[in-house]
Amino acid sequence: MRSIASSEFSNRLLATTGLLLGALLHAAQAQEAPLPQNCFDLWKERNQYYADAHYCFKTQKAKNEFKEAMKTCSVDDESRLRLSEEQLRRIAKIIQRERAYGCSSN
Predict the structure, then answer these.
(1) Theoretical Cys-Cys bridge with 53: which of 44, 63, 81, 101, CB 3.0 to 4.6 Å?
(2) Using CA atoms, how far apart are residues 94 and 50, in angstroms rounded to an integer?
(3) 55 by DSSP, 3-state: which?
(4) 8 falls in which pLDDT band (50, 70, 90)?
(5) Is the dihedral of CA 58, 63, 65, 67 positive or negative?
(6) CB distance 29 to 52 below 8 Å
(7) Sorting pLDDT into bands at 50, 70 and 90, what band is 11?
């Protein structure tokens, strides 16, 4: 009898833990920082992710803005950058906002 009760308790505990983890994840996503409200700040945040991933910028504007990052750049192809799913989602939102604002891609 105790093993059944213990098993039921374990199953309920696992279910409750899963629900709590899901709620925490949802809360963390809901607290995401608001997107910048102008083209330059959107561009800078988007490119900061690339700089942090050691991207070697091609445009002079980016090279000038991210001089320090250019000293350690090692990735020439954007598709080869190692970005987390969270970073990729944020970048996609930034690009969407840039398009809505009519920002230039550079």
Answers:
(1) 81
(2) 13
(3) strand
(4) confident
(5) positive
(6) no
(7) low
